[in-house]
Amino acid sequence: MSRSTRSGVVSNLLPPKPQVISALREATHEALQAMERAQAIAADEATSDESKAEGKYDTRATEAAYLARGQAERVVQLRDLLDWFDRLDPDATCATVRLGALVALEGDRSQQLFVCPVGGHAVTVDGVEVKTISLAAPLGRAMVGLAEGDDLDLETPSGRHELEIAALI
Q1: Cβ contact 156:142 at 8 Å
Q2: What CA–CA distance (Å, rounded) separates 99 from 24?
Q3: Residue 51's pLDDT is what?
Q4: pLDDT at residue number 8
Q5: How far is CA 27 from the centre of its chain?
Q6: CA 115, CA 53: separation in Å to the nearest integer?
Q7: Are 16 and 2 in contact (CB under 8 A)?
Q8: 91 vs 139: CA distance, rounded Å
Q9: Strand partners, 35
Q10: 101 closest CA partner among 110, 114, 86, 85
Q11: What is the DSSP string of the chain?
Q12: pTM for this one?
């Protein structure tokens, strides 16, 4: 897992970026397939004869329709994310934290992050867990534009966290 970073310093903090992107794309594809199945089931439930209201307080069909709509929106998001991964150059490096950056944070919350349009996923590559984070997340906003070696302070409900961008690809 040892590799060179932009600055030429050997880093054991980050797995190879192409492997991370490939693993994230595969995880997104699997999530899309599962969500498409769930959305189809919810759509069937919303239009099923068994969901028709049996009284004025029976809201099964309405609830199923809301669920189907939400799942359909998630399907669109996952398809968009897959398209983004397909357009992403896995060998591109980033001088500062931005979309497509692979970041190792060191400090009281050490972690490896991949900056994506949508966060909330995690994959393990070469024994290293890499989580996705969006620039809309508080940590994503705090990191944007920072370079390798930069420090950041993050105020969260659980307290203040001091972090350093230890590696960046």
Answers
A1: no
A2: 14
A3: 63
A4: 40
A5: 10
A6: 45
A7: no
A8: 24
A9: none
A10: 114
A11: --EE-TTS-EESSS--HHHHHHHHHHHHHHHHHHHHHHHHHHHHHHH-GGGS-SSTT--HHHHHHHHHHHHHHHHHHHHHHHHHHHHS-TT---SBS-TT-EEEEEETT-EEEEE-SS---EEEETTEEEEEE-TTSHHHHHHTT-BTT-EEEEEETTEEEEEEEEEE-
A12: 0.82
Contact 25, 124 (CB under 8 A): no
* Residue 139: both structure tokens together: 């940590």
What string of pLDDT tens digits covers the 169 residues of the chain?
A: 334 444 444 357 899 999 999 999 999 999 999 999 999 988 888 777 776 667 776 677 788 888 889 999 999 999 999 999 999 999 999 999 999 999 999 998 789 999 999 999 999 999 999 999 999 999 999 999 999 999 999 888 888 989 999 999 9
CB-count burial class (<10 Å; 0-12, 13-18, 19+) for 41: middle
How far apart, in whole angstroms, are the C-alpha atoms of residue 32 and residue 105? 29
Please name the amino acid found at residue 117: P
**Tokens of residue 8, six digits:** 């030429």
